[in-house]
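Sequence design from tokenized structure. All designs in this work follow the same two-part layout: the structure record, then the generated sequence. An example of the structure record is given first.
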């Protein structure tokens, strides 16, 4: 009768993890299993002695990073499988997780070499900035000087602060008594129109 997970043991041995470095222990499971979890120890606790494995020192260092708290100070990697209902399924699940960790640890990361941007990429960046420039200029706040400059050619809005004003028309004494002086009327109109200017 074949041992459950025998193919995984062969794959681990090919990666430098001998079967002698592994230890399997059955424990009570808190996962699924119904009434069976109170009678049979269906969970599997897998321990792997990393120091006994035929792995390079960089691979062991990467395995330590991947394992995190699951790797003890003595170099023993512990995995607990209890999400399935039977011992055989949890045993295979624990071996698959160990195989995945070992496989990832043996992958040598590519060294990143510093490169310089090409001339074409620099030109593309500058062209993109020029295309976006009109949009970014529209986002800036409009100052009061710019707002008044837009309406510089409109004599009705040129009122105070040393700006030239329209010459007052000739009003009769009756119009002056009814509506006040021309200057007072212009002041009131300018204050209302200046409040409507965009900020």
């Amino acid at each position: 009768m074949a041992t459950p997970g025998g193919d995984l043991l062969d794959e681990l041995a090919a990666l430098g993890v001998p079967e002698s470095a592994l230890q399997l222990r059955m424990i009570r499971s808190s996962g699924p299993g119904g009434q069976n979890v109170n009678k049979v120890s269906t969970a599997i606790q897998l321990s792997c002695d990393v120091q006994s494995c035929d792995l390079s020192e960089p691979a062991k260092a990467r395995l330590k990073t991947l394992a995190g708290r699951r790797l003890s100070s003595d170099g023993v990697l512990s995995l607990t499988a209890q999400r399935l209902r039977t011992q055989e399924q949890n045993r295979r699940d624990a071996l698959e997780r160990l195989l995945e960790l070992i496989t990832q640890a043996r992958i040598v990361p590519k060294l990143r070499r510093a490169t310089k941007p090409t001339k074409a990429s620099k030109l593309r960046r500058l062209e993109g900035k020029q295309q976006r420039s009109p949009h970014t200029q529209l986002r800036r706040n409009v100052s009061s000087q710019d707002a008044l400059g837009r309406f510089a050619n409109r004599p009705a809005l040129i009122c105070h602060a040393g700006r030239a004003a329209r010459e007052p028309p000739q009003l009769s004494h009756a119009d002056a008594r009814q509506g006040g002086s021309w200057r007072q009327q212009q002041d009131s109109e300018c204050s209302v129109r200046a409040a409507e200017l965009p900020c």
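Strands lie at 22-27, 43-49, 76-81. We note this feature because it recurs in several other targets discussed in the main text.
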